[in-house]
Write a structure and sequence with these properties.
This protein is of the alpha+beta class and 158 residues long. β3 and β4 form a beta hairpin. The protein has 3 helices and 8 strands. The strands form 2 sheets. Strands 1-2-3-4-8-7 form a 6-stranded antiparallel beta sheet, with helices on one face. Strands 5-6 form a two-stranded antiparallel ribbon.
Length: 158
């Protein structure tokens, strides 16, 4: 399926195929100023997360393909794409139990994408909003220690 055929949308439509059918987008998960994250399936039907480089201040989507908003935005968008791909390559080289594994970085539809493991569970913000009792000091200490281990490992890798 070609994304957004015939109209403009911010997110890719469910069913959109990426990388010649290697990935199929199911639905958006979250959106920020520099990208959109999707739940997807790979060609082996495994759940994965796809992060799309989509800096809204620099680009738009027309007929499924990402285009810069203006000639002035092209240079900024090119720089952000370069940084996105470079960061993906660095992340792919990290192996730590508290860091999500990166499978692939690729370009499609005028931008770059990052494919990574889907981690089942609830994010910390949702826990804070819906079950704050789970954020007792002991639980927070464990979560922070795991995050600090991952940061320390990452720092140690340069």
């Amino acid at each position: 399926m070609k994304p957004g055929s015939g109209h403009s949308t911010i997110e890719l439509l469910g069913g959109t195929l990426l990388l010649r059918g290697q990935y199929r987008v199911d639905r958006p998960l979250s959106q920020g100023g520099f990208g959109i994250t999707y739940l997807a399936h790979d060609s082996l039907n495994r759940e994965v997360v796809i992060k799309e480089c989509f800096p809204r201040d620099f680009c738009t989507r027309r007929n499924g393909t990402v285009h810069t908003c203006s000639a002035e935005a092209e240079k900024g968008f090119a720089y952000i794409l370069h940084q996105f791909k470079q960061e993906a390559c660095l992340l792919a080289g990290l192996e730590h139990p508290n860091i999500v594994r990166v499978h692939q970085v690729f370009e499609d539809y005028g931008t770059a994408f990052l494919a990574m493991d889907f981690v089942h569970g609830t994010d910390l913000l949702t826990v804070a909003e819906n079950a704050p009792e789970r954020l007792a000091a002991e639980n927070l200490r464990q979560v922070l220690n795991e995050a600090l281990e991952a940061i320390g490992y990452t720092h140690g890798q340069g």
